[in-house]
Design goal:
Blueprint: E1 2-5, E2 17-21, H1 29-45, E3 49-55, H2 58-62, H3 74-83, E4 88-93, H4 96-99, H5 103-112, E5 117-123, H6 136-146, E6 149-153, E7 157-158, E8 161-162, H7 165-173, H8 177-184, E9 188-195, H9 200-203, E10 209-212, E11 223-232, E12 247-258, E13 269-274, E14 286-296, H10 304-322
Parallel strand pairs: 1-4, 2-3, 2-5, 3-4, 5-6
Antiparallel strand pairs: 7-8, 9-10, 9-14, 10-13, 11-12, 11-14, 12-13
Helix pairs in contact: 5-6, 7-8
Length: 323
């Protein structure tokens, strides 16, 4: 699969292609349906499929300070889109100048001149161009000018409610990681570099990997969760400076998010204990935590012994849910 960061990395001799375009934050089941349709058209026409996405989130450029928590990194998005059948993924740096392209300029610059699109598949709510002036009917009209077809796919819904990245963020804010996983089509993942914490978990017999996560990451509500901890391969450079890689090793885990009120701390941490493993040395490693189910909220215990007793019960529950 080809991975391009910016239109300048698209080869000059790139031929015709089928294109799907969107922010694709989370690459949830609704997005998966859109990419599947593009892959279907690509197979019918014998053409490669290009998925175009943006970094940073357009909202942060158009309305600074409004960046929504992202459900997955640009590198992770590219990885997921490739797994759905995209032959190439192009991450376009979303700048203020880029946001000012009018709809015709956007289509000519991105879809016609660079991708040589013969078909474009988007969600039915897709907007483009300066001040989001372009919609699917305008995209279809411009397609006649630049010789491509355009399809706006209906948003996939559960029980009549459309799936959206916004709704998934809301579920994570509520700690409902199981519902978020149903809409994503996989467990929600948080990535980061393992850093040294206070090592209290190790003293209690539950050594944890403490993740330093990038800004704007969608982190579930404070509490204890069952899930998995994975060590990612690669050097952490990734696409567009994004860290990561594929799972090199993966372990069932008990996960804690919160401020450790028993010890009177104020810093929020995201940490995971790989079940029954006290021999892992992950400091400095790029790692990922996948969330399966919330076990309980954050509690303040009267003693360290009471905390250790509850952690033992949490591990039992986590083991039951992840094995």
């Amino acid at each position: 699969m080809y991975r391009w960061y910016g239109l300048g990395e698209v080869p000059a001799d790139w031929g015709k292609s089928v294109v799907t375009i969107g922010v694709f934050d989370g690459v949830h089941r609704g997005h998966q349906r859109i990419v599947a349709r593009a892959a279907e058209l690509g197979a019918e026409r014998g053409l490669p499929v290009v998925a175009i996405t943006f970094d940073p989130h357009p909202d942060e450029v158009v309305r600074p300070g409004s960046h929504p928590p992202f459900l997955c990194s640009a590198r992770r998005r590219a990885e997921l889109l490739a797994g759905l059948g995209a032959d190439a993924v192009c991450v376009i740096p979303f700048t203020l100048d880029f946001s000012r392209l009018d709809p015709d300029e956007f289509v000519r610059t991105v879809l016609a001149d660079r991708m040589h699109a013969t078909a474009v598949v988007v969600g039915e709510d897709f907007r483009f161009g300066h001040k989001a002036a372009g919609d699917v009917p305008l995209l279809a009209k411009l397609g006649e000018k630049y010789e491509f077809s355009a399809e706006g796919m209906p948003l996939l819904g559960i029980d009549g409610t459309p799936i959206s990245s916004t709704m998934i963020r809301r579920l994570l804010t509520d700690g409902d990681v199981a519902a978020a996983a149903r809409e994503l089509g996989r467990p929600h993942r948080v990535e980061g570099v393992v850093v040294r914490g206070h090592q209290r978990g190790r003293a209690l017999g539950f050594p944890t990997a403490n993740l330093h996560v990038p800004p704007h990451t969608a982190i579930p509500a404070d509490g204890v969760y069952a899930g998995w901890l994975a060590r990612l391969d690669g050097d952490g450079s990734g696409l567009g400076g994004d860290g990561g890689g594929h799972d090199a090793e993966r372990w069932p885990a008990a996960i804690s998010i919160g401020t450790n009120p028993t010890f009177g701390e104020g810093e929020r941490t995201v940490e995971a204990y790989a079940l029954d493993r006290d021999d892992l040395d992950l400091y400095g490693v790029h790692a990922a935590i996948d969330f399966a189910e919330r076990l309980r909220g954050t509690l303040r215990f009267d003693s360290v012994d009471a905390l250790a007793e509850q952690m033992t019960l949490d591990v039992v529950q986590a083991r039951r849910l992840t094995r």
